[in-house]
């Protein structure tokens, strides 16, 4: 099967989530970062999921699989609109500010702009109506999870939902407008990136959060009891990251229901992501072949079991619907021949993590000589330590293996590993921005299995030394990457 056209040349990407920009939003820093990529000869910006997060800020447990995170909206860009009264948009609270902006838009925007808003609401209705209602009811219930709401709202009784819709009509309109602003700003950013030869590479978790608009709106598609509580939850068995595995807590899919509905839910989910991104990484791809099913009452992932999933039917349906699947498979962890066969059937490159390559023997699949062209090589991912932090923590035996394999180079870490990624046969090499900046463990994005202090890292432009872009550009030219 033909690969997505984005892999028609050797490329370099940089991994940086939007929240890690100095401003943490879609404003000037995002455009400046695209300029940096262009100057560095890199053509891919990879980031994490963009959805609205819970209080822990994890982009892998979002309140919606479709909506954009309102915290990413650039307020300065709203103020620059001709219909905006910048002096009135000063409230620090995002909800109040959005209410003011919506009122200004309603009274001062021209008919073309109002028509664009109306068309957005119509085109995105398949998720937008449920999402704004979910967020408003959640707000009215002190931000508690939907399965703890009063039963009529929890169970989506029509009269209860109609009552909220009537009483909170303006609040719901403001929430729709907020999403309109997010998508407008995003599409402007994507246009700017694409015009400069930079593709946007997103991330789509296989599972959705239990407390999300998606599960509340379609509980029958998940393994839930009559009160909306999961009977089985997702995770992974013990692995490199955790001796007890990872109990993610997401409800599992009732796959038969998805089959009966011709995977319509998945088609809609991917449709939204393809409007945002040129390329999408599917997190935990192996779960489409078989997923680790944990009884909900278990506190860890140790007592789970593998349960087969209909991944082949799903991707056949998606391929038929979209015609092309510009997807990368996150195929880390325990990967069976069946998982590899599924990935290869749909021409999805897998992932090769260089931090996983050393300390064993020559058969390690992450070593460069074991890699193949249809892959994406990373020094590390958002779940890894920075490469400098990783290297400094290695014992002497593993360090010796690193240098024996890579050659006794005088090039320091992390650039030695960056060079290894760029020189690999992989069609795409992705470098976390922390590695380009030679940052240590204090700048790590996430530590799997922990809940404190993650997802908060931000860089400052003074960290970006004058020669970083030129150094990367030289290496990209040397190794035939763009």
Q: Give the SSE order as H and E letters.
A: EHEHHHHHHHEHEEHHEEEHEHEEHHHEHH
Report the average pLDDT across residues: 96
Summarize the biggest pleated sheet: 8 strands, parallel
Percent of residues in β-strands = 5-15%
Major β-sheet strand ordering: 9-6-3-2-1-12-11-10
Q: Give me the number of helical elements.
A: 18
> In angstroms, what is the radius of gyration?
23 Å
Question: SSE layout and pairings?
Answer:
Layout: E1 11-15, H1 28-39, E2 44-46, H2 75-79, H3 94-108, H4 111-123, H5 125-140, H6 151-154, H7 158-167, H8 169-195, E3 199-205, H9 213-217, E4 232-236, E5 246-251, H10 255-260, H11 264-276, E6 279-283, E7 290-295, E8 305-308, H12 311-322, E9 327-329, H13 337-345, E10 350-353, E11 375-378, H14 387-393, H15 396-406, H16 415-423, E12 428-432, H17 433-436, H18 468-478
What do these coordinates show?
This protein has 482 residues and is α/β, with parallel strands linked by helices. The chain is built from 18 helices and 12 strands. The protein has an 8-stranded parallel β-sheet with strand order 9-6-3-2-1-12-11-10. A 4-stranded antiparallel β-sheet has the order 5-4-7-8, with no helix packed on it. Helix 1 links the parallel strand 1 (11-15) and strand 2. Helix 4 packs across helix 5 (125-140) and helix 11 (264-276) packs across helix 12 (311-322). The longest helix is centred in the middle third of the chain and has 27 residues, at 169-195. The radius of gyration is 23 Å and the shape is globular.
């Amino acid at each position: 099967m033909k690969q997505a056209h984005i892999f028609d040349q050797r490329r370099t990407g940089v991994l940086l989530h939007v929240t890690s920009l100095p401003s943490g939003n879609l404003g000037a820093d995002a455009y400046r970062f695209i300029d940096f990529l262009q100057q560095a000869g890199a053509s891919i910006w990879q980031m994490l999921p963009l959805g609205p997060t819970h209080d822990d800020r994890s982009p892998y447990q979002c309140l919606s699989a479709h909506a954009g995170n309102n915290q990413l909206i650039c307020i300065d860009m709203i103020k620059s609109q001709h219909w905006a009264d910048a002096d009135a948009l000063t409230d620090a609270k995002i909800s109040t500010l959005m209410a003011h902006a919506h009122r200004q838009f309603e009274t001062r925007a021209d008919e073309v702009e109002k028509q664009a808003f109306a068309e957005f609401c119509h085109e995105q209705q398949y998720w937008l109506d449920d999402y704004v209602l979910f967020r408003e009811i959640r707000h009215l219930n002190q931000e508690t999870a939907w399965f703890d709401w009063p039963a009529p709202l929890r169970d989506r009784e029509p009269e209860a939902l109609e009552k909220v819709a009537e009483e909170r009509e303006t609040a719901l309109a403001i929430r729709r407008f907020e999403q309109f602003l997010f998508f407008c700003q995003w599409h402007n950013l994507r246009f700017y990136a694409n015009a400069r030869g930079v593709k946007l590479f997103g991330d789509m978790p296989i599972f959705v959060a239990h407390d999300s608009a998606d599960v509340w709106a379609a509980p029958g598609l998940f393994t839930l009891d009559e009160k909306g509580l999961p009977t089985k939850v997702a995770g992974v068995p013990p692995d490199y990251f955790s001796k007890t595995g990872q109990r993610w807590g997401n409800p599992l899919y009732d796959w038969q229901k998805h089959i009966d509905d011709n995977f319509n839910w998945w088609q809609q989910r991917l449709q939204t992501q393809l409007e945002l991104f040129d390329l999408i990484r599917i997190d935990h791809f192996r779960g489409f072949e078989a997923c680790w099913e944990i009884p909900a009452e278990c506190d860890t992932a140790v007592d789970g079991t593998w349960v087969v999933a209909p991944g082949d039917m799903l991707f056949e349906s998606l391929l038929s619907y979209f015609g092309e699947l510009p997807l990368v498979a996150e195929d880390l962890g325990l990967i069976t021949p069946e998982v590899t066969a599924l990935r290869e059937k749909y021409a999805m490159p897998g992932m090769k993590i260089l931090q996983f390559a050393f300390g064993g023997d020559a058969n390690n699949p992450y070593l460069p000589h074991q890699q193949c062209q249809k892959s994406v090589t990373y020094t590390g991912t958002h779940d890894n330590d920075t490469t400098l932090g990783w290297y400094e923590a290695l014992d002497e035996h593993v360090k010796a293996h690193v240098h024996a394999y890579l050659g006794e180079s005088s090039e320091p870490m992390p650039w030695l590993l960056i060079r290894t990624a760029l020189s690999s046969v992989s069609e795409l090499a992705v470098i976390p921005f922390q590695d380009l900046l030679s940052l240590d463990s204090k700048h790590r994005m996430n530590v799997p299995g922990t809940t404190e202090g993650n997802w908060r890292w931000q860089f400052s432009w003074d960290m970006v030394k004058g020669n970083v872009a030129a150094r990367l550009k030289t290496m990209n030219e040397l190794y035939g990457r763009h």
